[in-house]
Amino acid sequence: MERHAAEHLLRLLAKAGNACSTDRSAAFSALRQASALLWQLAPDSPPIRPLDLEKQLSVPIEAWLPESVRGGYEGPLLSSHFTTQTCSEMLFEMDIRELWEETQAIVRKVRDSCRLRKGGQQLYRNFRLFLIQHAVLKPVEAQAALVPLGLSMTDIYSEIPARLIQDGQVFLCPSCGWPMEALKEEVHCDSSWCKHSKSVFLRRNGHLINRHTSARNAGVPAEGLWMLQGALWKFTLLPGRLELALAEALTSKGFAVELWPDFDRADLRVVIGPQTFEIDAKVWRSAHSLAERIKLLRPATPLWIVVPDYQKSHVRFLRESCPPGVEVFIQSQCVKELVKRADPF
User: How far apart are CA 195 and CA 212, in angstroms?
Assistant: First the structure.
């Protein structure tokens, strides 16, 4: 099956899963298109009705779609009629072009503004840190950071939807700070990064209890809170957490680390003797989607793509997609490799 057809199918399935509990008309339309595409791509198999395909969304996709189609995604798209983490991440990563352009338009506006100002590099760095550290806030808390950059609240944040509020409370992911959908049986945000960071909760006697630590998430009052827009959360905040962790680890080893140098030419820059290394942190669910982005890179300086340690099994595949000058490491490998290369200096 050709990759673009597989991606189109995944996009339709994710849209159907996302709409099943909120817009039955949109869900049925996506299911009907997905059903037709499945039959077109596998004409020897009997066609599957849209309503039967909807039932399949509650079955892990690895049980009914081959690896060549699902591109590394695993798990069901629906659970107890709610959109799953897999479905949410597919929506973000399948619509990468539109969401990426949306994110970059905002970042570019800030970057261009900062370039014209004295101390603009630090101002830009402060903006990036602000987004990473403020997944939710009240508008008054954002004014000092956004107004000087010519941004309004609605450029960066949106009101928290009612489905994420329970009894006037919103339950925040302890790893990234974004609201979690607390009505699900297994509660977490829409990021596999946070799930691997043990930010998963179960409903017990009306309370949210961490599956791994037994800590209780009591929630915070939702009144007046806004949340970071989805594209900025996915492509700025989440990798930003990895970027800061890398910077901290490298600094502890004695490296001088520059975050977002030259107004975001890279995520991190490390100089070792005569050589400069630029590092981009990526937090993607699908190795196939990330590989497509990596193929487009044409760096002028050695560029290291760093993914979370839990994606160690993806590294070999990602390296096969690397153009000249690009290498791929997991987080811990990156630190060890830089320490090794710094040894002669």
Answer: 11
What number of other Cβ atoms are within 10 A of residue 36's Cβ?
A: 14
Is-contact 285 192, C-beta < 8 A?
Answer: yes
First to last CA, the chain: 50
The two structure tokens encoding residue 6: 């597989």
Burial zone of 254 (CB within 10 Å; 0-12 exposed, 13-18 middle, 19+ buried): exposed
CA pair distance 48, 62, nearest whole angstrom = 17
Residues 6+ apart with CB under 8 A from 111: 124, 263, 264
Question: 26 near 55, Cβ under 8 Å?
Answer: no
219-231, pLDDT tens digit by residue?
999 999 999 998 8
Q: Distances from the Cα of 116 to the Cαs of 15, 54, 68, 110, 113, in angstroms?
A: 41, 52, 47, 10, 6
Residue 257 has φ and ψ, to the nearest 5°, of -110, 130
The set of residues, in sequence order, having a beta carbon less than 8 Å from that of 182 and lying 6+ positions away, is 164, 166, 169, 171, 208, 219
Q: Which two tokens stand for residue 329?
A: 């490491």
All structural domains of the chain with their residue ranges: 3-94, 161-224, 231-342
Fold of 231-342: Trna Endonuclease; Chain: A, domain 1 (3.40.1350)
Residue pair 73/10 in contact (Cβ under 8 Å)? The answer is yes
| Lowest mean pLDDT across 96-105, 196-205, 233-242, 284-293 | 96-105
- pTM value is 0.83
Which residue in this structure is represented by tokens 């909807």?
54
- Cα three-residue angle 312-313-319, rounded to 5 degrees: 85
- Specify the DSSP class assigned to residue 267: S
- Using CA atoms of 70, 73, 74, 77 in order, give the dihedral in degrees to the nearest 10: -90
